[in-house]
Design goal:
Rossmann fold; about 25% strand; about 350 residues; alpha/beta; globular; six-stranded parallel sheet; 2 domains; nine-stranded mixed sheet
């Protein structure tokens, strides 16, 4: 007997929406029944490469007419909550969407409340942990060859709302998704606050996890270079230190580890096609009841909470404990707190 197929609609025909739609179409566990965008030329171009599903300029109409199992949207972050409500109103089983999951903790809490009350499965695109270099390092950690893990770290260029939830999600992944006790953070620079992913130019902080592991993160223009990687958006490291050795991933490159057994390394790369394919395949398996999705909303919320906790700490100039409650939107709070100076201090 063939496996069940699930119906999908995709809102957004830009770079990320195009990739989602094409990979849903290519996977025989899914039936892409609708795509939506305000740009008709872009919409028709995407339809031609994805089996010519029904096309729409109105998301509500698309959901009403197609009644899909899965609502996927790839839009700017300011639209998250309203689109999530729209999917819930049309009784979808899964909402799959881009990071960051929200623009503030208060908004994220509203999203999680809807998901829990309606029983909606949610997944967020932190898909790069499907990369072979991430998986190899995670296997080494799980093997015990690094001894007792005491530190996880991550840093990258690119700005905060684009990259922080990736970094937080991946260090949590390497630390077996342990809960966090507290975070303390600092931010600098106002240039990127006007972006559609509004961010400080740099942010850094320290996290204490309940299992005793310390997390160290930096995101933005003042973060360390990764000379092994050429492309700026791929210049990042995710690493783990233990009592018997260490292992690390280059976001846009290889992996390496040193254990008491010796030194090992291997290839890796930033690969949207490969990583997104695994992410999409696991949506079907979660709906089948076979496995929970590694990018599930409950885990994603914990990483987002870390990212917003760092900003809240910076704005309040004090350590912040978890869990976080609702409050002033974190980006607005730091916009008030960051002085009017450049990265050079001039």
């Amino acid at each position: 007997m063939s496996a069940k197929k699930y119906s999908v609609v995709v809102l957004g025909a830009g770079k990320r929406g195009k990739l989602h739609a094409e990979l849903f179409h290519q996977n025989d566990r899914f039936d892409l029944v609708g795509i939506c965008d305000l740009d008709n030329e872009r919409l028709q171009s995407l339809a031609a490469t994805t089996g010519n599903p029904a096309t729409y300029n109105d998301a509500a109409k698309m959901l009403q007419e197609t009644k899909p199992d899965i609502f996927c949207f790839c839009t700017p972050p300011a639209l998250r909550l309203n689109l999530f409500k729209l999917g819930a109103d049309h009784n979808v089983k899964v909402i799959a969407y881009e990071k960051p999951m929200a623009m503030s903790i208060s908004e994220a809490l509203d999203i999680m409340k809807i998901a829990r009350e309606k029983g909606i499965k949610t997944v967020v695109s932190h898909q790069h942990k499907y990369g072979e270099h991430y998986q190899q390092v995670k296997q080494i950690i799980d093997s015990g060859k690094l001894g007792r893990i005491h530190t996880v770290y991550g840093h990258c260029w690119g700005w905060y709302l684009h990259m922080a939830t990736h970094i937080m999600d991946y260090i949590r992944f390497m630390n077996n998704n342990a809960e966090a006790e507290w975070i303390i953070g600092q931010v600098h620079g106002r240039e990127k606050l006007t972006d559609n992913h509004p961010s400080p130019d740099w942010a850094g902080g320290f996290i204490q996890f309940v299992n005793g592991v310390r997390g160290i993160v930096e995101i933005g223009a003042l973060s360390p270079d990764v000379p092994e990687v050429e492309y700026s958006w791929h210049k990042g490291r995710i690493g783990v230190q233990g009592t018997e050795g260490f292992a690390e991933i280059l976001i846009g490159g290889d992996w390496r580890a040193v254990t008491k057994e010796g030194t090992v390394s291997g290839p890796g790369k930033f690969d949207y096609q490969h990583d997104q394919g695994g992410y999409i395949a696991d949506i079907a398996l979660w709906l089948d009841g076979v496995k929970e999705h590694p990018c599930n909303g409950e885990s994603t919320y914990k990483g987002f909470e870390l990212a917003m906790g760092l900003l809240r700490s910076a704005a309040q100039r004090q350590l912040v404990k978890f869990p976080l409650g609702p409050g002033e939107p974190e980006i607005e709070a730091i916009a008030k707190a960051i002085p009017e100076v450049s990265l050079t201090g001039a």
